[in-house]
Amino acid sequence: MERLFELARANAETHPERSDRYVELALKIGMRLRVRPTREMKRMFCKSCRGFLSPAQRMVRLRDGVLVIRCMRCGHISRMRYR
Ligand SMILES: [Zn+2]
């Protein structure tokens, strides 16, 4: 599963559509194995459209110790605490 996220990241610039596919696969496998994506993984995809969030497709802001990530494709905003 981690390997798939690595692949998604590696393909983000050259083949964005492949990245989405890898994310989809990784999530599917995770569900089957009942493994939850790690914080790092969660940061890499949009919960709403399940697309891979490459630096070009997201907007990240840090506010009061909270990381705000906005997906540029569907506009979904996710927040997570930042250490
Ligand atoms: Zn999205």
Structure overview:
By secondary structure, the protein is an alpha+beta fold. The chain has one domain. The protein is 39% helix and 20% strand. It has helices at 2-11, 16-33, 39-42; strands at 58-63, 66-71, 77-81. It has a 3-stranded antiparallel sheet, with no helix packed on it. α1 packs antiparallel against α2 (16-33). The two termini are 24 Å apart. 20% of the residues are buried. The model has no long low-confidence stretch (mean pLDDT 91).
What key phrases describe this protein's structure?
alpha+beta; binds zinc ion; 83 residues; 39% helix; 3 helices
Silhouette: globular
Low-confidence stretches: none
| Gyration radius, rounded | 12 Å
Distance between the termini: 24 Å
Bound molecules: zinc ion
Instruction: Supply the number of structural domains.
Output: 1
What's the total count of β strands?
Answer: 3
User: What strand order characterises the main sheet?
Assistant: 1-2-3
Summarize the structure.
Helix content is 39%, strand content 20%. It is an alpha+beta fold and 83 residues long. It has a three-stranded antiparallel β-sheet with strand order 1-2-3, with no helix packed on it.
